[in-house]
Specification:
single chain, mainly alpha, two-stranded parallel sheet, two-stranded antiparallel ribbon, 4 strands, 56% helix
Length: 321
């Protein structure tokens, strides 16, 4: 249901309903056509058809997105990609303690199947954005379990194809899954900067009032604070979690995030792809991979400590009950 005074913007996202990820089609069909049909007119036709379908759907979505009123982050939150207050280490450690206590006190073991969870996450994300822009931006709620993007970005938990809006979540993420889906759905709604997607995911989930969704957002915030504090050292991160006073159920889920990341071969590949992705982010005016954690936590800190609270934006600071 949408409020009657909201402007309705509908993004088709037709390619997200394909049985195979559209990027996999674009990458796989030319190879298959070459192997099966060779350099023939029929092979060229098959390739052209695949490219045409992909680009046609992408163009349809791009046209629909032109009517979206994007959030002005600095005006609404007092913080944006390049205007942030830096947290001190002491403030980060204090927030870790507060977040840990909140997570222990409000723990829920509830789990929702991914398809149903995607619908619920999208509902709250759409509502949150609409509360600021006055637009109900409707999009697909489809989430894939697999995409070849996992090969290109082995460090990623999920991915969103920039052209088609196709979203994949690569494994079962337990308590973290709602936030990852909300992050990727933020991209699908046109917020391509990683810090903005992180912020919208967090703020929409913490304002939802749903214990499962709030827990996911707080887990993400704690995870990112710890990564900053240990300077992304995987072993140091694990030690912090193992020695923390988090509930055993939560400790297990935090440790699963970095499972299998300490083999040399995987580490070399991951570092290579991280460096390439970091460079791509910087070329598009972002601050690099640090936007996921350092930028994200500084954004929330800046927003929650601004002198004049915003009129429309909703937040749930970690110190609140």
């Amino acid at each position: 249901m949408t409020q009657p005074d909201l402007e309705i913007i509908q993004i088709p996202n037709a390619a997200t309903y394909w049985p195979v990820a559209p990027t996999d089609v674009v990458l796989g069909v030319p190879l298959a056509a070459r192997l099966l049909l060779g350099a023939t007119p029929l092979g060229a036709l098959v390739q052209a058809t695949a490219y045409g379908a992909y680009l046609g759907n992408a163009l349809q979505d791009w046209v629909a997105r032109q009517d979206i009123r994007k959030i002005d982050f600095y005006r609404e939150f007092g913080a944006d990609l390049h205007r942030l207050k830096a947290m001190s280490r002491e403030e980060r450690e204090a927030e870790v303690r507060t977040l840990s206590q909140r997570l222990n006190d409000g723990y829920t073991g509830e789990r929702i199947p991914r398809r149903e969870l995607a619908v619920e996450v999208d509902r709250h994300l759409t509502r949150y954005i609409a509360s600021i822009t006055g637009q109900h931006v409707g999009t697909s709620v489809e989430v894939r379990d697999f995409s070849l993007a996992v090969v290109l970005f082995p460090f990623a938990l999920g991915a969103c194809d920039m052209l088609s809006g196709d979203v994949a979540v690569f494994r079962d993420l337990d308590a973290f899954e709602p936030h990852v889906i909300a992050h990727e759905f933020s991209h699908r709604k046109g917020y391509w900067r990683e810090l903005e997607a992180q912020a919208l995911a967090y703020l929409s989930l913490t304002s939802s009032g749903e214990p499962l969704l709030v827990q996911s957002a707080l887990c993400e915030r704690l995870h990112r604070q710890l990564r900053v504090l240990v300077n992304h050292d995987v072993r140091a991160f694990r030690e912090r979690i193992e020695q923390s006073d988090l509930r055993a159920e939560l400790r297990t889920q935090f440790l699963k995030l970095d499972q299998g990341r300490d083999t040399t071969a995987d580490g070399d590949l991951e570092n290579l792809m991280r460096n390439l992705y970091d460079a791509r982010m910087r070329l598009t005016g972002q601050n690099g991979l640090s936007d996921y954690d350092l930028g994200f936590t500084n954004f929330l800190y800046t927003f929650e400590h601004r002198a004049t609270p915003p009129q429309k934006a909703i937040t749930a600071a970690p110190s609140q009950p």
